[in-house]
Amino acid sequence: MLYEVKLRLTYSYDSPTDHARNLLRLLPSDIAGTQVVRARLLTFDPAPSERYESVDFFGTALTSAAWHRPIAEISVQMTAQVERKTAPPTFDFSRQLSDLPGELAAQHSLEPASPHHFLAASGRAGPDPEMTAFARDQLRPGMTVYEAITAVGKALFAQMSFDAQATDVNTPAAEAFAKRHGVCQDFSHIMISALRGIGVPAGYVSGFLRTYPPPGQPRLEGADAMHAWVRAWAGAEMGWVEFDPTNNQSAGEDYITVGYGRDYDDVPPLRGAMRGAGGQESAQAVDVIPQA
Amino acid sequence: MLSKPSPFARHRLLESYQPAPGVADELFDAQGNMRPVWRPFVERFLSLEPEEIPRRFERGDQYLRDAGVYYRRYSNDVLAEREWPLSHIPVILHEREWAGICEGLAQRADLLEAVMADLYGPGRLVSDGHLPPELIAGNRHWLRPMVGVPPRGGHYLHFLAFEIGRSPDGTWFVLGDRAQAPSGAGFALENRMATGRIFPERFPRDRIHKLAGFFTEFRNALEDLSGQGRERPARAAILTPGPASDGYYEHTYIARYLGLPLLEGEDLLVENGQAMVRTIEGPQPLGALWRRMDAGFMDPLALSPHSQIGTPGMMEAVRLGNIAMVNALGAGVLETRALMAFLPHISRVLHGQPLKMPNIATWWCGAARERAHVRAHADQMMIGPAMAVDLPFDLDATTALGGAFRGVARSSIAQWLEAEGGQLVGQEAVTLSTTPAWQDAPGGGSLQPRPMTVRVFAARTPQGWRFMKGGYARIGPQGDATALSMQSGGAVADVWVVSDRAVPPLTMAPDSARGFRRRSPGTLPARAADNLYWLGRYIERCEDAVRLIRAYHLRLAATGSIDEKRLRRLAQFLDDVGIDVSEPVPSGLIARLDAARICASKVRDRFSTDGWLALQDLAKTAREMTETARPGDDTARAMGVLLRKITGFTGLVHENMYRFAGWRFLSVGRALERSAATASLLIRFCDETAPEGALDLVVEVGDSVITHQRRYRVATSPETVLDLLVLDADNPRAILFLINDLKANLEALPNAESAGRPGPILRALLPLRTELMVAEPRSVTPEFLARLRTQLFQLSDLISDQYMR
């Protein structure tokens, strides 16, 4: 499936800021076997005084932009043409969950895809007694790793309510879990923490999701937002699998990946710093448009 | 257990000196003979008159107090400080022994560099199975943004410290490596200074190796590092987390000692991939940073998003190779305790040689065999978090000791090890050597053996690793000689490395290759200018408040009634600026003093220790007065005391501060504040509705009573008062005088003019001055004064805009 992805972010400051610098992770990249980026473009208004492109440790495209003069508002526009390959049907060839520690011990690597990065607690997701207990409750004797991952994701979907008002970007996962309310970021952090608690390496995926308008209605422009889901390591043979606990499904053809991290803090769409007084406001509009 | 007591052992001060069995002692060997290296010192010490000893110790302590040496734990109270716990007896080591220590540690330093290069490079130690991946991947000090980023200058590590101890068999071992931002080098210098006051004798002093040479070499290395391969000159600087950090005193000390600017994250910015210092002359390039800040805080964008003290974009400057870090970001991973379990093997793998100096025996409990070993020997182990970067004796670093949990209730060590193995590390509960320390006692003190560790400092120079010839020792409490006893803190002592013959004095002749270098004070960082400017303003605000409060209480004492008209007006005037005269020493005044002190604390490296102590003393006195001062005469007198102390501080600053830009900002702040305060006072007390006696009050607060008598020889009238306090170019309290002073200082600042024309600040000031020069007293109306005050505040904004951004 070919998509056109459009994103527009605006940041306005109460009082013009002296120096502003932003790190952005918005551009999708090629992922072997899954995703081909045919075109991508990130523009700023006003134009930054300096700009650098790089790739972070986990392979996400990273843009750094800085303004050395006072600015009152920054608007960021991203457009990309991304081909998402048709996902083959998933066959579970993972081993039993009890075999996972042995499989992990055989992995001697610090490469970005190494599961070892994703097992220990990170800033915003980590083993937590409550979430670990929740994950344990979903396990049945003899389950495979893949079954365990899916069971935890499905159980979260069943017990959590999507609620854009309950949390914000800084809400800790434990608080969202206690309320059983949250948005995709919370769902993902909770699932990551739960999986790590039962010894399954798990990380955060930032990207876009194609949404479907209600039957008979046109697609609303700019109504979407960026999305987040989970990837988990199902052993040496099966490798990484992706599951979206907010929508109770494997991340398939409708998903466009921007980047991976241990949690949100590794892949925030925008992280900014400015010198100056006052607060700031932001607005985001996203379109994921399927091309014929 | 002294089998053959030496003659000294019978001396009164040593008769109860009993090293514990199975413990090495620095002073006596196993046979009870005093080690020759101590002999000259001990002979001298034992010959002192009993009453001479405390006198000498007090000299050392007095030096530390005068120098303002203090230390603190991280705390929210920026001003909480503790006295420096000097143990007055030095630790003495022979230069031959020291050379052996340095040889072992130089090998270790090279090994740490190689490990660092691998962890941020090819990662072979992990992929070849020499290091468990989870120790690195799950380590918060392993910074992913640094992977694949070569360090500028080719090396990751430039300044290291090692905590070492002596085993019962007399050999040395490493308890911990400090690579993140090693502290203590400045304290070693201060200990040396203080100990020099206690033992000033030429002998044995002439046999002690000096510390200064090490610092000279390190500073030169830093400057080379910052300058190499650049077209434009770039400076080296020290980066501190700020006054709230426990090492801040040391940072200011070492910055002054090395003549390097002390900067905070706010002082820096990154433009076009180059790290710059914000100065009053605009951004200036920075070539190398000796960071005393943990790497995670260095950049809130690329590293810890929670950092409030970092510099956005710093990681980018590092990635582009535009700044050298001492040490490279990410070096903290080398401090991981569990790494100690693998270093002996890694030394063989990477360098084909065993460690010359072992480190504390360590077992990572993530591996079954090691876990079993720790379980079986738990009674001789310190068990704690594998990823901790504390030293084994730091607080919280050890969860279980000698087979028992410390302060936490858990089921059993075996279960704990099984459940959390990979998170845990076992370390041999080592025994340290003991060294003499002074023990006070009612009937006269004595020397007693105390456990110790020594911190050794190493710096990379073009000639290889160089070591400080000396260091500082931590001295534990009496009794327990296990490493853990060190956690209760105890004291610190100077370490003397001595030779058998006199050590040649350091030649102060300039290094011929470098030539004579006069180190210019450098361009003033914008934040320092800001703090000095506000220090000037706050100090003046304090003085103004003190004078007004004194005037109030003098009149209260005379009239005995707070309902008197002048008093009511004065009380209202003070109330408007947050000072409530119903408290004799109002909290509003204390707040002003604290504001001044906080500004001063941020620029302590820029003015004299005496100035800082004067300010501390001022604040302390004011606080004490809040308890004691009674309204009326008593408070008036108390304010007189404060006034003299304020003048003491400003006098010290004015007389002794080098006339560089920083002094000018301080002076500008004072002059501006004083002009505005005088204008405010005149608006309220020199108008037609002012009660009788108000003019005298103004002249008194303006400290111009005598001048007024001399110049006018008549009673005060609005004309005489306005003439004297506004239009007089010779009265230091008159606004015109102050404006002239402002002009002189502002003209001397960089970029005061552009293309031969006055810049925006002078353009705003000059018309003001002209207007005052030509005005007559009768035209100085309250409206005139109010406008003047507004223009002064606009001037303040212009100064901030040009110099303090």
TrEMBL record, chain A:
SUPFAM superfamilies the UniProt entry points to: Cysteine proteinases
Q: Which organism is it from?
A: Thioclava dalianensis
Location of the Transglutaminase-like domain = 176-247
Q: Name one Pfam family in it.
A: Transglut_core
Q: Which PANTHER family match?
A: BLR2979 PROTEIN, BLR5614 PROTEIN-RELATED
Protein name per Swiss-Prot or TrEMBL: Transglutaminase
From TrEMBL, chain B:
Q: Return the protein name.
A: Uncharacterized protein
Database matches in PANTHER family: BLR2978 PROTEIN, BLR5612 PROTEIN
Q: Which domain of life is it from?
A: Bacteria
List residues of the DUF403 domain. Answer: 524-804
Instruction: Give residue ranges for domain Circularly permuted ATP-grasp type.
Output: 90-475
Q: Which Pfam families match?
A: Alpha-E (PF04168), CP_ATPgrasp_2 (PF14403)
Q: What organism, scientifically named, is this protein from?
A: Thioclava dalianensis
Cited SUPFAM superfamilies: Glutathione synthetase ATP-binding domain-like
